Amino acid sequence: MGTTDWTQLWLNYHRVYEGDGAWNIALEGFSDTDVVISNAICEFRKAIELLTGEQVSDSPEAGKKALTLKIAKVASISAEGYSIKGSTNGIDLSASDANGVLYGVFAILRLIACGKRADEVAETASPSNPLRMMNHWDNMDGSIERGYSGNSFFFENEEIIINDRTRDYARFMASIGINGIVINNVNVKGAASYLITDRYFDKVKELSDIFEGYGIKLYMSLNFASPIEIGGMDTCDPLDRSVISWWEKKIKEVYDNLPHLGGFLVKADSEGRPGPFTYGRTQADGANMLADVIAPYGGIIIWRCFVYNCTQDWRDTKTDRARAGYDYFKDLDGAYHDNVILQIKNGPMDFQIREPVSPLLGGLTKTNQMLEVQAAQEYTGHQIDLCYLIPLFKEVLDFHTHCNEEKDTVADIVSGRTMGNNLGGMSAVINTGNDMNWTGDDLAAANTYGFGRLSFNTELTAEEIAREWIAQTLNLPKKEEDILCSMLLRSREIYERYTSPLGIGWMVTPNGHYGPSVDGYEYSRWGTYHRADHLGIGVDRTDRGTGYAQQYYPENAKLYNDPNTCPEELLLFFHHIPYTWKLKTGKTLIQHIYDSHFQGEEEARGLAADWDSLKDAVPEEVYKRVKERFDLQLDNAREWRDQVNSYFYRKCGIPDEKGRTIY
Question: N or C: lower Cβ tally within 10 Å for the chain?
């Protein structure tokens, strides 16, 4: 497969102006024998010619103005940071390490692609987060759990694929500041358990080396039950001396073969995965055992907090899956070793279109924490329905937990600023596959790009990120850029309106999670999540209900506990509300449900019409692919509107005040 078989995403490098110079490269304190530096220079060489028509050469043509990209080592610049400044003589780039040089080069190219001339380039930056990671849920048979963009480009038929696409993927990730990638599904099964054996060491090493050349550490998801499944033991009890000994030998073998491995991501005791609970041990027992074994090699253990009992009876008014993460992990705060990071989903449930921020974020004050979000649109449209998720991620990062008088936002906590810790950051369940355009819907790549940029610089706005992505990907005129930017920024709330407004969530088809099934979802046999009856809808999570609201610090607990002060976008998440309840708009709850679904469907048609208006401004093949997605989105929006409105009309018997047809 050649490089013409897939797009270059935001590294398209459109011609933005015709330059009149010729470039050379000058290194001070760095060497081009460093593979990261070499790759940075290669990227600059390739891109500057495409962007400006200028070439990089030690012997410039006669009549060409001599320009220099001067790359200097400056120890005072923070790790992975950079400073760039253009002038009539070229561009100065300063950094203290090779990763900083790489990110600085990509920053230069981004700024030029977004309209700056080389002599106008100026930016100083350092990463907001120590770890900026992508979590792949790829399986070794080539399938991807919650994958909506084809099959894996890492695995096929239980073999590891390495080709030109692999290197392009590493380039894309480095260009947005990603420095860690987990290559396999957190639900480790079958052949994936053997990634830590000599069956795969050579190929994993080859992949690791490619990543390393772009400043990226390779991580793997680990099967906690490996001592049983590949070691032939009868236990994986983390406190069993024979189990510990098995892991010590195995991890030594792994690092002897994969010296640059970053560490492991672990999902335990959830959704059928084995873990320390099986043996009466705590999550800290499991995480710390692995952390102690991997510590001599500089590795880290990233331990997911997505732990809950999926067989709970949701009809019990005191039973609440939302409580699980806090209940399982809060009392162990401070018990985890220094090279353990707890990876916490942005909300207490499962990547819904609207959830409160997980109370674990900030609830833990002595433990390394990492924010986990999902770029793959599992519950937000499957990369069919347009849903730009960066506004959601920004809301989470900007949320005030009240864990600290000053540095109390989620961004403060996961970056390490609140507690002064060096391990933490952000991770995203990525949305890429082997489709020619990588993300199924070309517009869904904005979520991939946006997560990386936001994890590198949490101060960026959703609009700034959207405009960067549009400029680099499609290079549209200003009018058309404005239209597409508006589409992206409106899309999340539109999707929310025609699916599940007011924080109720779920109501999706079981297993697939696309399209409406009001009483559906995998665990519906244990009762519905929305808990609707003929009088009202919503979950009572107050001190009179499940008590979930009390997991927050007092300021937020008080806010959420009272339906009169609870933010209305989360009203049904925290309260069981009568259909006749008056919202701040003066509408009744049921009328808001009707209106929201009609409005959302209408606005989805508006998005599709906006895309049609861009037909002559975007490449024909891109227009057609996205147009097909909008056709599917409109069908989905109509189905959501009709099924949800019909369900609640039949449930409550209250007609639509506007006289619209509800079946």
Answer: C
* Annotated catalytic residue within 5, 28, 271, 635: 271
Specify the pLDDT at position 316. Answer: 63
Q: What is the pLDDT of residue 330?
A: 97
- Summarize pLDDT for 475-517 with one digit per residue, the tens: 999 999 999 999 999 999 999 999 999 999 999 999 899 999 9
Average pLDDT over the chain, rounded to an integer: 95
Right CATH for 497-539+576-652 from 3.40.50.620, 1.10.1740.10, 3.90.1330.10, 2.30.42.10:
3.90.1330.10
Cα–Cα distance measured from residue 280 to residue 532, given in angstroms and rounded to the nearest whole number: 37
Assess whether pLDDT exceeds 80 at residue 405: yes
The catalytically annotated residue of 97, 378, 442, 595 is 378
Q: Using 50, 70 and 90 to split pLDDT, how confident is the model at 2? A: very low
Mean pLDDT of 179-201: 97
Whether the CB-CB separation of 120 and 449 falls below 8 Å is answered with no
Question: What span, in angstroms and rounded, lies between the C-alpha atoms of 356 and 347?
Answer: 6
Cα–Cα distances (Å) from 571 to 337, 355, 545, in that order, read: 38, 10, 14
Where along the chain do its domains lie? 3-125, 131-473, 497-539+576-652
Q: Which CATH class is domain 131-473?
A: alpha beta
Q: Is 350 a catalytic residue?
A: yes
Percentage of the chain lying above the pLDDT 90 cut: 92
271 catalytic? Reply is yes
The residue assigned the tokens 């459109």 is 14
Which tokens is 163 given?
A: 């080709």
**Cβ contact 186:230 at 8 Å:** no
- Tell me which of 158, 253, 333, 350 is the catalytic residue: 350
Share of the chain above pLDDT 70, in %: 97
CA 170 to CA 259: how far, in whole Å?
19
CA end-to-end span of the chain, whole Å?
51
So what's the pLDDT on residue 311? 59
Annotated active-site residue 603? The verdict is no
Residues 6+ apart with CB under 8 A from 432: 136, 149, 153, 169, 438, 439, 448
